[in-house]
């Protein structure tokens, strides 16, 4: 009985205890939403509850139009933030991607909302209000706000089972226009990559395939296949789940509620230094319902926290009506990160919705009620010479409207058909914008939660009211922008846009605001940098090798309408944001441009075209008083080896950035492509872009033998060319074992070209999509040996089942062939790493293949005077003259010859009638790669008519048995009589060599990959060492805490030059075992880290330690090192 009493007491006590515990909350705790004072655990509990509701609703509804919750990290410039496809920018509890700028967070949560007055069916809702008509009829109305915010609880159903916020969409209403990939966890972004090999970037839907362009293309707002900005995200939501009010926007579907609006969201970022501190938020709102909406107000709700997520209590703010911008700053200048002074954060209204039905020129542009839905070029800026390019916005695709002589507006309900430039939605000026009509800055309190619809409208959305903000009293304030009221008839759309801006100080912020306005007024057609190069990096021993492709060099700038690529610049940092390299200030003292990496000789790692653009650009960055350095006409490079103070074991971040030269006439300053590296806050994983690198230089393993070209090197199998063929291995990790290559030269008209064929057979597995193009892993497939087969080995017929586009590296699967949708097929082929190259003058720029570069120096046909001479041991002192016959250039013949000397006459003159003239030598053609042959010669007697050839008499070489086949002529001269003549002796050879151009030449070579040698390992065991030695307090190889870079990571040293597989035992000086480390690395990796802890995970004491290394091959080494704490 006592035992039962004790158990009952424990149960009651536990129940009381756990009812107060954070992870056991009641419903009202969840419904009241996240609070800023919550712990991380509280936020996790709330988010899990919220996510469970989203997932359950998504699963229960089974509606293919709806989309799971997705997110993305925007990091296209110096601002990094997380966004969600229910409309939120950042989110409550987010402490690592909360609109981060220079290491500090600036935003709690931001998001759009729509408010409209609608007729409701009853007066049951406390926010409803009556209107009595002139005949005495009463109608009830309500101000309904739709939003997706989570702050202060957001919009939640009374029973807590449903959120009334924005609903992400995967398709349009009839499932014909895709918005996102239903199977992806990520919001589509224009820079996403194809990681799973299905032919499209992972976050994009399959429906973004463009048949005209034969590829999956980004649905740009102005043109297919191109974004306005360096980084763009896209998602669509509607408000069908907003069931708070008895309003039914769809006559035939009472389950679909809200206002019946859909919002298309595009977020833009540019890496250009003028715009690197701005995010543009563009919202296109469409009334998809059956009913017209009146008294519609578009708005943006936001809550900043300048200085970090724990620094929200002391923000000051001010609204500048002239700039349409509210900005805030920290009262005491102290942030969450010690030593990091917070900047200024602004929130600028750019574009307001149009009102084309009030008969008023709302925007003062001289046009009344202009519209973006009428198909009329109301401001007459559509140019038939430039803009008649069709509905996809891309010239030369032959799509609808191209070259028809009239403007072709886009389809407002299909993002894949944006329309021609400067008509309807591609022309900002064709909107009669009402402007910003209100701003409020109330405190962040539960009373001001967005779910209090009528309260929010009455207090903060009344047009004409502008709060001056809170520039004196510091606190925690919300920013609410509003624009309206307008009419939004059924089926029509309106657009509004906001810019989130950060600056180092007030001056920097306002300059950024001016830039934001300028970009908006240019219809978001801001400076467009070249494409980003695809970069590979190889760690070495105190060096890093970078190499990249030439994709940037063919970039077309749609703003300047030129191919304006200029060069590459390399940045290096130990900070993934590269902020430590942003040291070049503008005229205001704000950090503006980045300092390039220095080479070992102190020059900047900048490589530019040799042209008229060099030195400082003639174009200043607007308002900044600083110019971009275009380079010194160094010439382009695609390989760079960094050995300037490169420390083994240290983590480095590199970026290879392409840039253009700008445009003097348009006053567009030079632009660089972005260099983004993102820290995933959930996994602490570094996410790299195609042109950014994270790398640790290190010594190779003790037995490392690097890759090589197999002996005898490059062999010539055909042709007479003598030019230089230089193959350099720059990436020993990429060289393949026993791989063979053929190098072919061919004449294409008057031009000489060459191609390199990789003889290794490739196999690509492809999931079939009928009627679409599928990409092979390599371009320039060899069509001569290409085959496509099923997994069972059944071959398909080219031209019947599929078409091969060998240069593009694509196959088109015919829908009328025998291949089935979704079937797995295997493409087997070889490919040309280099195809039809005309780089023949030692210039670099050929694609890098399997870690190697190929450089060709072609020769012109001429005498090679360095090799034309007597053999080394000939006693003769005769001199010579070799020239084309009668000095006629056309008589030069591409061959090598030997004059072979005898003691007696062996050759007769080939000249008819003079056969009696004899000579003591023969002429042989000995061109490498061809069978040797004896040639006829003509001997011209001029010294003595004695029927014998004498020195001073001409020797004419014939290439055939006709006298007209003359090529070279040769004359030997005796020295003066004072020096005495020493003739050749039997066996002497006089060689004549020519330099010859390639024509139909074929060369072959093969490679061996890097290897691990036991013998080499044994010889290098004495070279194993510890870094640093001694270890004193800390080391610069210790990693930084990436989420708080001012904090040092864990202590560590590393062992270098280790065998690829070995065991390391660490002992005290007295012989006690401290720790055992097992090293199992690649042959290029000869280091192993130790965190200076014992096998029991205790920190080691200071002192001297002994290490013993034993490889799997049995080789051993012993050494010592010291730890000084």
Q: Can you summarize the main beta sheet?
A: 8 strands, antiparallel
Number of strands: 68
What structural category arises from helix and sheet content? mainly beta
Cα shape: elongated
- How far apart, in Å, are the first and last alpha carbons? 60 Å
Note the total helix count.
7
Strand % is 25-35%
Helix content: under 10%
Name the strands of the widest sheet in spatial order. Answer: 8-11-12-13-20-17-16-15
What's the gyration radius in Å? 38 Å
Low confidence ranges: 1-23
Overall pLDDT confidence: 90
List keywords for this structure.
mainly beta, 33% strand, eight-stranded antiparallel beta sheet
Describe it.
This protein is mainly β. Helix content is 7%, strand content 33%.
Task: Walk me through the topology.
Layout: H1 2-19, H2 27-31, H3 40-61, E1 71-74, E2 79-84, E3 100-101, E4 104-105, E5 107-119, E6 129-132, E7 138-147, E8 167-168, E9 209-210, E10 215-216, E11 231-238, E12 261-269, E13 278-287, E14 293-304, E15 315-320, E16 325-330, E17 344-351, H4 384-387, E18 438-440, H5 453-460, E19 479-488, E20 493-503, H6 506-521, E21 535-540, E22 543-548, E23 565-573, E24 584-585, E25 591-593, E26 606-608, E27 616-620, E28 627-629, E29 639-642, E30 652-660, E31 677-679, E32 686-688, E33 692-695, E34 704-705, E35 708-709, E36 715-718, E37 724-729, E38 739-748, E39 751-767, E40 773-775, E41 787-790, E42 802-805, E43 810-813, E44 824-837, E45 852-857, E46 862-863, E47 869-870, E48 879-884, E49 897-901, E50 907-908, E51 918-919, E52 921-925, E53 933-935, E54 937-940, E55 954-958, E56 966-973, E57 989-992, E58 994-995, E59 1002-1008, E60 1011-1012, H7 1014-1020, E61 1025-1027, E62 1031-1032, E63 1053-1056, E64 1061-1068, E65 1073-1080, E66 1088-1090, E67 1103-1111, E68 1116-1124
Parallel strand pairs: 62-68
Antiparallel strand pairs: 1-2, 2-3, 3-4, 5-7, 5-14, 6-7, 8-11, 9-10, 11-12, 12-13, 13-20, 14-19, 15-16, 16-17, 17-20, 18-19, 21-22, 22-29, 23-26, 23-30, 24-25, 27-28, 30-33, 31-32, 34-60, 35-59, 36-59, 37-45, 38-39, 38-59, 39-44, 40-43, 41-44, 42-43, 46-58, 47-57, 48-56, 49-52, 49-57, 50-51, ...
């Amino acid at each position: 009985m006592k035992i039962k009493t004790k158990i009952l007491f424990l149960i009651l006590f536990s129940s009381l205890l756990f009812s107060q515990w954070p992870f056991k909350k009641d419903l009202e705790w969840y419904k009241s939403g996240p609070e800023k004072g919550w712990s991380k655990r509280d936020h996790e509990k709330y988010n899990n509850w919220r996510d469970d509701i989203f997932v359950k609703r998504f699963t229960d509804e089974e509606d293919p139009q709806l989309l799971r919750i997705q997110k993305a990290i925007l990091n296209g410039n110096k601002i990094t933030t997380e966004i969600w496809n229910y409309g939120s920018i950042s989110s409550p509890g987010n402490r690592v991607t909360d609109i981060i700028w220079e290491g500090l967070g600036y935003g709690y949560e931001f998001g759009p909302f729509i408010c409209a007055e609608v007729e409701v069916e009853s007066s049951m809702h406390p926010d409803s209000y009556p209107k009595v008509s002139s005949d005495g009829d009463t109608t009830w109305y309500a101000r309904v706000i739709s939003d997706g915010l989570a702050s202060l609880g957001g919009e939640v159903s009374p029973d807590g089972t449903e959120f009334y916020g924005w609903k992400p969409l995967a398709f349009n209403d009839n499932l014909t226009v895709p918005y996102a990939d239903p199977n992806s966890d990520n919001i589509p972004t224009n820079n996403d990559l194809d990681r799973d090999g299905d032919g499209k970037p992972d976050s994009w839907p399959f429906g973004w395939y463009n048949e005209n362009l034969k590829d999956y293309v980004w649905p740009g707002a102005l043109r297919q296949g191109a974004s306005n900005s360096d980084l763009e995200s896209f998602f669509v939501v509607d408000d069908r789940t907003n069931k708070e009010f008895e309003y039914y926007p769809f006559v035939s579907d009472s389950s679909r509620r809200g206002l019946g609006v859909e919002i298309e969201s595009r977020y833009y970022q540019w890496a250009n230094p003028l715009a690197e501190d701005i995010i543009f938020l563009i919202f296109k709102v469409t009334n998809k319902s059956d009913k017209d909406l009146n008294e519609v107000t578009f708005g943006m709700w936001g809550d900043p926290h300048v200085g970090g997520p724990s620094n929200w209590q002391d923000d000051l703010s001010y609204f500048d009506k002239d700039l349409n911008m509210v900005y805030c700053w920290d009262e005491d200048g102290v942030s969450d990160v010690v030593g990091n002074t917070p900047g200024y954060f602004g929130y600028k209204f750019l574009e307001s919705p149009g009102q084309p039905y009030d008969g008023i020129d709302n925007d003062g542009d001289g046009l009344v009620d202009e519209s973006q839905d009428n198909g009329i070029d109301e401001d007459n800026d559509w140019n038939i010479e430039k803009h008649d390019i069709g509905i996809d916005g891309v010239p030369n695709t032959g799509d609808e409207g191209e070259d028809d002589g009239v403007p072709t507006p886009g389809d407002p309900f299909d993002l894949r058909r944006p329309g021609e430039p400067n008509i309807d939605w591609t022309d900002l000026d064709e909107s009669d914008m009402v402007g910003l009509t209100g701003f409020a800055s109330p405190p962040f309190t539960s009373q001001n939660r967005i779910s209090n619809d009528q309260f929010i409208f009455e207090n903060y959305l009344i047009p004409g009211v502008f709060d001056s903000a809170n520039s004196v009293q510091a606190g925690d304030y919300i920013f609410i922008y509003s624009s309206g009221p307008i009419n939004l008839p059924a089926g029509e759309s309106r657009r509004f846009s906001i810019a989130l801006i950060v600056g180092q100080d007030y001056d920097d912020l306002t300059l950024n605001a001016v830039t934001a306005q300028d970009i908006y007024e240019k219809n978001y057609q801001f400076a467009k940098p070249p494409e980003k190069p695809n970069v590979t990096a190889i760690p070495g021993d105190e060096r890093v090798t970078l190499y990249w492709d030439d994709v940037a060099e063919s970039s077309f700038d749609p703003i300047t309408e030129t191919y304006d690529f200029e060069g590459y610049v390399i940045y290096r940092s130990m900070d993934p944001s590269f902020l430590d390299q942003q040291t070049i200030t503008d005229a205001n003292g704000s950090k503006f441009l980045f300092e390039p990496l220095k080479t070992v000789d102190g020059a900047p790692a900048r490589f530019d075209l040799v042209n008229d653009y060099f030195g400082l650009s003639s174009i200043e960055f607007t308002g900044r008083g600083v110019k971009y350095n275009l380079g010194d006409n160094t010439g382009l490079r695609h390989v760079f080896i960094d050995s300037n103070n490169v420390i083994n074991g240290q983590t480095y971040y590199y970026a290879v950035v392409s840039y253009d030269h700008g445009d003097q006439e348009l006053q567009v300053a030079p632009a660089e492509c972005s260099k983004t590296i993102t820290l995933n806050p959930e996994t602490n994983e570094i996410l790299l872009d195609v042109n950014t690198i994270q790398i640790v230089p290190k010594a190779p393993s003790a037995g490392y033998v690097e890759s090589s070209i197999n002996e005898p090197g490059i062999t010539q199998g055909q042709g007479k060319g003598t030019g230089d063929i230089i193959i350099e291995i720059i990436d020993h990790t990429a060289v393949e074992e026993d791989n063979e290559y053929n190098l072919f030269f061919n004449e294409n008209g008057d031009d000489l070209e060459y191609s390199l064929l990789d003889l290794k057979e490739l196999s690509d597995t492809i999931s079939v999509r009928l009627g679409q193009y599928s990409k092979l892993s390599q371009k320039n497939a060899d069509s001569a040996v290409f085959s496509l087969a099923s997994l069972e080995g059944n071959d398909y017929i080219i031209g019947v089942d599929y078409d091969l586009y060998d240069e593009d590296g694509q196959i088109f699967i015919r829908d009328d062939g025998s291949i089935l949708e979704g079937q797995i097929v295997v493409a087997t082929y070889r490919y040309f790493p280099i195809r039809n190259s005309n780089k023949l003058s030692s210039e670099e720029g050929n694609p890098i293949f399997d870690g190697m570069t190929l450089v060709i120096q072609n020769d012109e046909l001429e005498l090679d005077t360095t090799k034309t001479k007597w053999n080394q041991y000939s006693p003769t002192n005769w001199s010579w003259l070799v020239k084309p016959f009668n000095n006629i250039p056309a008589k030069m013949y591409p061959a090598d010859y030997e004059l072979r000397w005898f003691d007696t006459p062996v050759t007769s003159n080939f000249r008819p009638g003079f056969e009696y003239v004899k000579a003591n030598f023969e002429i042989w053609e000995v061109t490498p790669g061809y069978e040797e042959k004896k040639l006829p010669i003509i001997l011209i007697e001029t010294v003595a008519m004695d029927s014998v050839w004498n020195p001073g008499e001409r020797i004419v070489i014939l290439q055939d048995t006709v006298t007209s086949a003359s090529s070279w002529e040769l004359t030997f001269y005796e020295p003066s009589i004072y020096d005495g003549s020493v003739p050749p002796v039997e066996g002497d050879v006089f060689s004549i060599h020519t330099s010859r151009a390639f024509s139909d030449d074929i060369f072959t070579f093969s490679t061996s990959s890097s290897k691990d040698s036991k013998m080499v390992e044994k010889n290098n065991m004495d070279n194993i060492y510890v870094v640093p030695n001694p270890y004193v307090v800390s080391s610069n190889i210790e990693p930084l805490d990436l989420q708080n870079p001012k904090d040092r990571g864990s202590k560590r040293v590393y062992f270098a030059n280790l065998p690829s597989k070995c065991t390391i035992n660490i002992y005290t000086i007295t012989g006690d075992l401290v720790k055992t480390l097992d090293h199992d690395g690649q042959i290029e990796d000869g280091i192993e880290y130790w965190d200076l802890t014992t096998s029991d995970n205790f920190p080691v004491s200071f002192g001297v330690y002994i290490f013993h290394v034993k490889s799997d091959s049995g080789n051993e080494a012993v050494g010592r090192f010291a730890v000084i704490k």
